[in-house]
């Protein structure tokens, strides 16, 4: 693409550095901003800069938070003996939305992925292991994606806390509520049979 | 969506104001920026602000340009008696890419669309009409999208310059090079038969 304006070219280049946004979409977005009042561009730029400059993480669970101890960790009604291990804030938001969980979280900040250059030292695994040794936590629930990277991360953490007096579990894998059996993949269907639950349990929901 | 951080919530809100970007994508983009070095966010924000603050338009063709008279208008080798009327900079870039056009452009900045609140006064139509009266322009080529809004805009301009000694034309509509006839829509195919060109012309390309 050849641009008649260096300013426009720069803006398009920077927008297209975002994941999933190509040059054409970037140009469309830049031209859109030019047609809107200046305030919109100012608000967008300022909010991004502020986010990047002032972002804080909860000292206990490492979730994104504006205060030193996040709302969930600071809530005395939550069960601090139960900790759900997740990859990032989106997982926390998804689980919170269910309204089914009253424990705390531990946000790893990703998963071990040698392909993407993410090792255990890039995640908050040490902090989780140290917390586990304090004796307050009774159960760790692994809620990572069921991919090779997720499984590797689960196993890496498990190996480090194996010797501690701690229950570990993973969230149930199975057929989604409302899904038809015939369209489920074999691995999921197989796991849902192996990990079947007493029928009475489903009556309680 | 409930956020644990006001900073994140603001950033996601501002990003999701962009066309075609929903809350989930906005959150993904914001989390991506948080994982990248600070420089990237700074560069993005600065380029957007600079674009919006310092953008200039060519005084002759109204295309986006960093100088008062854009490169195309300032080029003495371009034919100033030929003016191609387009909607925005993307059309200029597309036509320039063909390498087939040696005239100048006139960028309208959109098309007449009562539904979107765009009237003739929001476009650079007056400037085009005034330019046409100066007598330097010999031909106007309408190259707007062939939609109802594009046709309305063409007709509106045509009515204002009808009395002048000026040739007007529109770009040819027809079957795209490489396309199969059987998949072409009827209107396009019909037009391509009506506006057929001497066979010898195609031999020259």
Q: Could you give a quick summary of the protein structure above?
A:
2 copies of one chain form a homodimer. By secondary structure, chain A is of the alpha/beta class.
Structure report:
Two copies of one chain form a homodimer. Chain A is α/β, with parallel strands linked by helices and about 200 residues long. Chain A folds into two domains: about 5-55, Helicase, Ruva Protein, domain 3 (Orthogonal Bundle), CATH 1.10.8.420; about 70-170, Dna Topoisomerase Vi A Subunit, Chain: A, domain 2 (3-Layer(aba) Sandwich). Chain A has nine helices and six strands, in the order αααββαβαβαβαβαα. In chain A, the strands form two sheets. In chain A, strands 4-3-5-6 form a four-stranded parallel sheet. In chain A, strands 1-2 form a two-stranded antiparallel sheet. In chain A, helix 1 (about 5-15) crosses helix 2 (about 25-35). Chains A and B meet through helix 1, helix 2, helix 3, strand 2 and helix 5 of A and helix 1, helix 2, helix 3, strand 2 and helix 5 of B.
Topology:
The structure is a homodimer of 205-residue chains.
Chain A lengths: L5 H10 L7 H13 L2 H17 L1 E2 L6 E2 L5 H4 L4 E8 L2 H10 L4 E5 L17 H9 L5 E4 L5 H14 L5 E4 L15 H9 L4 H5 L2
Parallel strand pairs in A: 3-4, 3-5, 5-6
Antiparallel strand pairs in A: 1-2
Helix pairs in contact in A: 1-2
């Amino acid at each position: 693409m050849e641009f008649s304006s260096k300013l426009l070219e720069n803006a398009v280049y920077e927008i297209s550095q975002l994941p999933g946004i190509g040059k054409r979409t970037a140009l469309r977005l830049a031209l859109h901003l030019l047609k809107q009042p200046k305030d919109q561009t100012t608000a967008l730029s300022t909010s991004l800069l502020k986010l990047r400059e002032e972002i804080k993480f909860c000292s206990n669970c490492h979730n994104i938070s504006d205060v030193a101890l996040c709302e969930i960790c600071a809530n005395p009604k939550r069960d601090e003996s139960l900790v759900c291990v997740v990859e990032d804030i989106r997982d926390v938001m998804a689980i919170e939305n269910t309204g089914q969980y009253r424990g705390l979280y531990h946000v790893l900040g990703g998963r071990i992925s040698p392909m993407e250059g993410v090792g255990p030292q890039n995640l908050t695994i040490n902090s989780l292991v140290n917390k586990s040794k304090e004796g307050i936590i009774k159960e760790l629930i692994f809620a990572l994606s069921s991919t090779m990277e997720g499984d590797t991360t689960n196993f890496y953490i498990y190996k480090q806390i194996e010797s501690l007096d701690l229950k570990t579990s993973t969230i149930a894998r199975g057929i989604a509520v409302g899904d038809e059996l015939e369209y489920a993949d074999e691995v999921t269907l197989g796991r849902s049979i192996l990990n079947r639950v007493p029928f009475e349990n489903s009556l309680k929901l």
